[in-house]
Design a protein that fits this description.
The complex is a heterodimer of chains A (about 180) and B (about 200). Chain A is mainly alpha-helical and about 180 residues long. Helices cover about 65% and strands about 5% of the residues of chain A. Chain B has about 200 residues and is mainly α. The chains are: A mainly alpha (about 180), B mainly alpha (about 200). Chains A and B meet through helix 1, helix 2, helix 3, helix 4 and helix 5 of A and helix 1, helix 2, helix 3, helix 4 and helix 6 of B.
Chain lengths: ~180, ~200
């Protein structure tokens, strides 16, 4: 049953990435260069909606809080993000959108995916030395959220903050100025 | 079809629906781990000692694959896992979405070559683009593994659970992605005055 869900949800995610235009590197590059904030508005809106859903669905008994999965916070998250950003700007792809781009027939996605497999392999080999360097221990505050999610993760504030966070993201999505591509 | 809602509302609603469906049925969406699993599956074809069964699961001769109680080693030993099938289905979903577009929208979505308009405007040719996507893939996945997740896992799934790691990752990504893309994709020389035809927010 889980494997059936894997295929169903993966297909739906690929479908949604394409419909949202996230599998088009131009949309990503126009967002990063502020030429057209379309994709930023779509993503802020999507995260805002998902946050509001997650906030409301647990008390309503619709969502099993055991489904939440929060990642650990440490300095490696920031440094990894900085490295990720360089690759994101070079290619206009991220690991998921390149797979969607492949499905819609973009040949440059193949180069990204091969580069990604090599990059992941390089990390596998480097992991031990990175751990030894202590990078992953700095700022290590564990798996922690801003607002109470109803699951076992440590939180800084009550669940009410989740509704504010969700609404704030939607407000940002609405306010980001829309410009036609130049 | 008339569009009652702006394109970004429709695009965002598609993405939110996918994230909510995954959260409801199984767990938050994540992608980048599966690049490691795919590498591990390939590697284990050449090295029988890479992944080995233990009394209560699996372990690996590679410290990264052995971490978290051999979770990755297990997924390599049993390739029919949720995570890998999910990721392998993504291209199929995008293919399906494109096929199901009305003809006019599908034709407008034709852009299937190697060079995005932004790369053309910046004066890059196909071979430069090939290097850039390869290097981009390398850095993106190396960074994602260092951070423990990518756009899906950290930014979208993470921030929607108000995870501190999600905000921190997003801050890191945009701190380098914005200045680098502004510099790389500044317009040089001749520009092609074609309007942005890339799909936005579903069927036009």
């Amino acid at each position: 049953m889980t494997l059936f869900f894997a295929i169903l949800l993966g297909t739906f995610f690929g479908f949604a990435l394409h419909r949202a235009g996230a599998s088009h590197p131009d949309n990503i590059l126009r967002m990063l260069t502020f030429r057209d904030p379309y994709l930023a508005k779509a993503i802020f809106f999507a995260i805002g909606l998902t946050t509001l859903f997650a906030w409301a669905a647990v008390p309503l008994g619709v969502l099993d809080p055991g489904h939440f999965s929060v990642k650990a916070t440490h300095l490696g998250v920031l440094v990894g993000g900085l490295v990720f950003g360089l690759g994101f700007a070079l290619a206009g792809y991220c690991p998921g959108t390149a797979l969607a781009a492949l499905g819609r027939g973009r040949r440059d996605a193949v180069g990204f995916i091969v580069g990604g497999l090599v990059g992941a392999f390089a990390y596998m080999l480097a992991h031990e030395s990175i751990v030894a360097s202590g990078l992953l221990e700095h700022w290590d505050i564990g798996k922690i959220t801003l607002a109470e999610t109803g699951s076992s993760y440590e939180a800084l504030a009550g669940a009410w903050l989740m509704s504010i966070a969700g609404l704030a993201l939607i407000v940002v999505a609405v306010l980001l100025p829309r410009r036609e591509p130049l | 079809m008339t569009n009652t809602f702006p394109d970004w509302v429709r695009g965002g609603a598609w993405l939110a629906a996918a994230f909510i469906a995954a959260l409801l049925l199984v767990k938050p969406i994540g992608v980048s781990t599966q690049y490691v699993i795919a590498d591990g599956i390939a590697w284990s074809q050449f090295d029988d000692g890479l992944v080995t069964a233990t009394e209560d699961g699996y372990t690996s001769s590679n410290p990264y694959l052995a971490k978290s109680g051999g979770k990755y080693a297990k997924a390599i030993a049993n390739p029919l896992s949720y995570g890998l099938l999910f990721v392998l289905a993504i291209p199929f979903g995008a293919f399906l979405s494109r096929r199901l577009l009305p003809t006019t929208a599908r034709n407008a979505d034709e852009e299937s070559g190697c060079l995005p308009q932004s790369a053309m405007d910046a004066g890059f040719d196909t071979s430069r683009r090939a290097l850039m996507v390869f290097g981009g893939g390398f850095l993106t996945l190396f960074g994602a593994r260092l951070a423990g997740g990518c756009t899906s896992g950290h930014m979208m799934s993470g921030i929607s659970q108000t995870s501190i790691s999600g905000y921190l990752f997003a801050a890191g990504v945009f701190a380098t992605a914005v200045p680098l893309s502004m510099w790389l994709y500044r317009r040089r020389g001749v520009t092609h005055a074609t309007p942005g035809s890339a799909l936005k927010g579903g069927a036009a």
